[in-house]
Design goal:
Helices cover about 10% and strands about 45% of the residues. The protein is mainly β. Strands 1, 2, 3, 4, 5, 6, 7, 8, 9, 10, 11, 12 and 13 form a 13-stranded mixed β-sheet that branches. It has a three-stranded mixed β-sheet with strand order 15-18-17, with helices on one face. Strand 2 and strand 3 (about 30-35) form a beta hairpin. The radius of gyration is 20 Å and the shape is globular. It starts with 10 loop residues before the first strand and ends with a strand.
């Protein structure tokens, strides 16, 4: 397949607004769900021998199979190669790891360190692979995939998750800064399902099911007409 000169490949970037899930299709009919505050860069028309996109944040892909033109997601250093499959990728700039959760099909993982390409093999449906940037190692485990893809329908599912992970996901979902006043809170384990609740409703449910309390500090206007993030302080509930 003839590859167009790089300068002729027109690129497009779609960003999903905070608190929104954006669904769209690529030129090959691959479907993409882009999570809140995430960004996908891709060519308007796929050319050459590889369909490549670049992700910042989180996205779910339903890739149309094309053996002559494999599909690749570049998630910082991690490269996710597929033919036709459904999977979720998490790769935020402020994280030191990238994750891939496979729903169906098969994918292979690799990364590049300088001129050296490292191959990590394949993962299978129902598995989650975590790529650690510092060590360049990949760890895999069997998971309940539903909790990792529920965000597509506006839901958040936690199943025996450390409060650290709950806080991180809530911060991104609602675009707020969550400050933990007592380090012990981060070690709590949490199970819950949120279906389209707003931030205040989520905090009230959090307070009912865990020994914590919260305080909300509203956004403030800055001189450049921007606003600070809303702050949420979490503290141990007083007995």
């Amino acid at each position: 397949m003839k590859k167009l000169p790089e300068e002729h490949v027109m690129m497009q970037t779609i960003t999903s607004r905070q608190g929104m899930v954006t669904k769209f299709s690529l030129s090959d009919s691959t479907k993409v769900w882009l999570n809140s505050g995430s960004e996908l860069q891709f060519p308007i028309l796929f050319t050459g021998d590889m369909r490549e996109v670049k992700l910042r944040g989180e996205a779910f892909f339903e890739v149309v199979k094309n053996e002559k033109q494999p599909f690749r997601v570049n998630a910082k250093e991690l490269k996710v190669d597929v033919l036709g499959t459904s999977f979720n990728v998490i790769s935020y700039d402020d994280d030191t790891q990238s994750e891939v959760i496979l729903i169906e099909g098969k994918i292979s993982l690799s990364a590049e360190r300088g001129q050296v390409k490292e191959e990590y093999g394949t993962i299978h449906p129902g598995q989650r692979a975590v790529f650690k940037e510092e060590s360049h190692k990949v760890y895999t485990e069997e998971v309940e995939v539903d909790k990792y893809i529920s965000w597509r329908d506006g839901n958040l599912i936690f199943r025996d998750d450390p409060m650290e992970d709950v806080i991180r996901r809530l911060s991104r979902w609602f675009n707020v800064e969550i400050v933990v006043n007592d380090p012990e809170i981060r070690s709590y384990i949490y199970t819950a399902t949120f279906r389209n609740e707003n931030l205040e409703q989520v905090l009230k449910l959090l307070k009912l099911s865990a020994p914590i309390d919260y305080r909300i500090i509203d956004s403030k206007a800055l001189p450049d007409n921007e606003f600070t993030k809303q702050k949420i302080y979490l503290m141990k509930k007083k007995i």
